[in-house]
Amino acid sequence: EEGQKTISVTEIAQSLHTIINNSNQDSILFKAYNNLNYLYEELNIDSAFFYAEKSLEITRRNNQLLALAQGLYNRGLLYRQTGQYGASLQDLLDAFRTLDNKESIYQRAWIVDDAYSREESRILILSITHHIYALLMESVGNRNEEIRHYRKEIALARKINNEFRIQLAYMNMTDTYREL
Fold it and tell me: How far is CA 104 from CA 31, 66, 116, 117, 138, in A?
């Protein structure tokens, strides 16, 4: 559109670094490091790992279980992308265990997604974790587990009316069925 400015990856990264340099609030630092992780996921995997570790460090220091699970699935995805399947599996299993801990997960929990309540955020994070687990199963050739986890992702995404997650899972599952 005419008159709209395009923001570069460098400008976004600089803005996030400004937030990091000017904040002493761990919830804000977590979100900034998490966004840097997403930003670099496809551009520079080493930087993405660095920011994933920073966000995990903050969540552990503050005992923020929802955010911890999110950080674990983020790092699990990075491990999968670099062929470190055992480490990816461990992070995803740790994320599942963390999300199962319903009693303590909400104590002082940071809001990880402003569009959702804490319970809806837990369901969203669980849905995404199943998606990444399915991707891992694709990487190791376990099609039955891959499909099973896409189905779990869809069922969870339906609970929170997240059409994007539903469509993404169906798209990936369609590709899986084509390969059978």
Answer: 21, 10, 18, 16, 33
Place of tokens 């199943």: 130
Q: What is the pLDDT of residues 19-68, one digit of tens each?
A: 999 999 999 999 999 999 999 999 999 999 999 999 999 999 999 999 99
Buried b (16+ CB within 10 A) or exposed e, 60-97: eebebbbbbbbbbbbbbbbbbbeeeeeebbebbebbbe
CB atoms inside a 10 Å sphere around CB 137: 22
Residue 107, CA atoms < 13 Å, CB-side half-sphere: 6
- First and final C-alpha spacing in the chain: 43
pLDDT in tens, 70-120: 999 999 999 999 999 999 999 999 999 999 877 767 766 787 778 888 889
pTM, two decimals, is 0.91
Closest by alpha carbon to 102, among 123, 88, 116? 123
CA-CA distance, 156 to 98, in Å (whole number)?
17
Rg of the chain in Å (alpha carbons): 17
CA 80/CA 133 separation, integer angstroms: 9
